Amino acid sequence: MFDIGEELAKLPGKPGVYIMHDAKDAIIYVGKAISLKNRVRQYFQTSRNKGPKIEKMVTQIARFEYIITDSEMEALVLECNLIKEHRPKYNTMLKDDKSYPFIKVTLGETYPRVLLARQMKKDSSKYYGPFTNSGAVKDAIELLRKLYHLRTCNRRLPQEQGKDRPCLYYHIKQCQAPCQGYITPEAYGENIRKAMDFLNGNTREIKNEVTEKMQAASEVMEYETAMEYRDLLNSIQKIAERQKITGSDGEDKDIIALAMDAEDAVVQVFFVREGRLIGRDHFFLRAAAGDSSAQVLLSFIQQFYAGTPFVPRELMIQEEIENPTLIEEWLTKKKGHRVYVRVPKKGTKEKLVELAAQNARLVLDQDKERIKREEGRTIGAVKEIADLLDLPSIYRMEAFDISNISGFESVGSMIVYERGRPKRTDYRKFKIKWVKGANDYASMEEVLTRRFRRALEESEGFTRLPDLILMDGGRGQVNIALKVLEELQLEIPVCGMVKDDNHRTRGLFYHNVELPIDRGSEGFKLITRVQDEAHRFAIEYHRLLRSKEQVHSVLDDIPGIGPARRKALMRKFKSLESIQEATEIDLAKVPSMDARSAKSVYDFFHLATEKPM
pLDDT tens across 60-97, in order? Predict the structure, then answer.
């Protein structure tokens, strides 16, 4: 169990991002902090006035996790990435990319410019950032233009050279007039190289120059000028704080680093998708005596990517492993495109690997015992199931269920567990179309046929196939699944979750044999959770359709009440009973309703129930 009080005591006083989960492990809030220790603790202090929304959120927090960063700026950008990726329930102020400007160097031009950009595009330009302070970005661009005489115009050069007179910036000696050909592309390119050197973090020379000017202005009591130089120094410092959280290449990468002690190791994986760090996961490993960190790293890569369905274009790892070329060839074959395994030696990529290593060390030092328990409930439970069924490994499991009441609105549910945890983004609902009446077997056949046919058609959201299919029932349900798979020429293990007379899971039906399973084992508990989740998801969908049908069958039959007014009525009154009890005056107060439509609703419910004279 996650002990919130115990975990609060472990929080580091470092900048980073914290992630709140509810009892179903869904992410409900993402926030940033200068000090994780101080910020996260505030949520659980009863003396603080947190407001109704936060008060409600705190009651739903079952656990939290965090990612440390090197600066508050990096925490802010990572927070933005995670909010966009997970869309947590309580993050109402979703940030847009426009909040985080980039500095763009138009290297595709003969005479490149340095500009502020609001979006990173896949073009020939070089992008730096994102940065969290647009004012600092503008100051830095202005400084670079003045120092290195970079052009500000948008003329097409050299095609338009000499067509107009040089602008004011040439006359005040802030531009060398490439528009007139007064400077060669080679000489201008050297100025751009110096500007990019600054943007790459080599700011010492410029900082020293600005500091000297600030001190000189102060000595002659030109304090306003000195303050301008001081503000410029602050802008330079903000630009110099390099952002590692978002990259400019837009590639998919996994950043892998580990921390070890005498017996155990924790591997931290940062997931970068389309250039943005969108999440992380950590993995606990039992290190064999005498194993080096490189051996543990290699073992992890082999085991993890043998099971995961997605392989990124690049693995950035902490240190050299044995025979990396062979690993690249294996991953390339698995992905179908070239995959690279690299050890970054400098720059932003090296810093990102170091950040992953810091997080791995923090987890190993503080959370080792809790991770062991969690891994037992998830990965360990999956391994128990794989061993019971004599399968080499299981990464993805899919479970299916049917729900109906006397054949009314039969629906199917598909839930997904990966590495022993629910993956709710892959859940799917099916409204039964081909089967009339209450026929669970025929309905299940329809659901499975539609699901796996879409996989063969490479329909979006259905392409990943499971390593194991779990059916909510015994021999009959399993045989239906096997029939569908045989018709579609797919080979996937199918297992039934058998219940006893009290509707409790008692075992697994596999290869025409019912396999008993230890009720106290983690594997049994996981099977029970999967079965309950499949049933819950189907019931939830069925309940939604029933409520829609009820609303449709009554409100849509009222003259003058269309979809907009129906929604407005239900939003205001919550139930049909409340609408029926409302007066004409109350009905007319509903948005989009007028006196005529209010009378129509009132008459529909009341005139129809009047007794004849």
Answer: 999 998 989 888 777 877 887 787 777 888 875 433 34
Tell whether the model's pLDDT for residue 397 goes beyond 90. yes
What is the distance between the alpha carbons of residues 183 and 4, in angstroms, rounded to a whole number?
Answer: 65
Tracing tokens 């919550």 back to the chain, one arrives at: 574
What would the pLDDT profile of 341-385 be if each residue is shown by its tens digit?
A: 999 887 778 888 988 898 888 888 777 676 667 777 788 889 999
Spell out a b/e string for 362-389, using b for 16 or more CB atoms within 10 Å of the CB, else e: bbbebbeebbeebbeebbbbbbbbbebe
- Residues 6 or more apart in contact with residue 256 via CB below 8 angstroms: 267, 268, 269, 297, 300, 301, 315, 316, 317, 318, 353, 356
CB 278 within 8 A of CB 269: no
Question: pLDDT value at position 182?
Answer: 92
Of residues 236, 280, 286, 282, the one with CA closest to residue 261: 286
* Alpha-carbon separation of residue 127 from 78, 103, 118, 122, 463 (angstroms): 18, 6, 11, 10, 34
Q: What is the pLDDT of residue 557?
A: 72
Neighbours of 456 (CB within 10 A): 13
Strands (E), 370-511: 396-405, 408-418, 421-422, 428-431, 468-471, 494-499, 505-510
In order of start, what are the domains of the chain with their CATH numbers?
4-98 (3.40.1440.10), 102-240 (no CATH), 253-367 (3.30.420), 386-547 (3.30.420.340), 556-609 (1.10.150.20)
d(CA 278, CA 86): 9
Residues 6+ apart with CB under 8 A from 86: 27, 30, 279
Distance CA 41, CA 50 (A): 12
Give me the pLDDT at residue 343, please: 93
CA nearest 505: which of 514, 400, 542, 391?
Answer: 514
The helix or strand, by DSSP H or E, that contains position 258, with its residue range, turns out to be: strand 253-260
Distances (CA, A) of 352 to 14, 73, 484: 16, 14, 46
Backbone torsion region of residue 66, taken as left when φ is above 0, otherwise alpha when ψ lies between -120 and 50, otherwise beta: beta
Q: What whole-number distance in Å separates Cα of residue 302 and Cα of residue 123?
A: 35
Structure tokens at 154: 């948008």
Residue whose tokens read 């997931």 = 271
* Residue whose structure tokens are 């390339």: 332
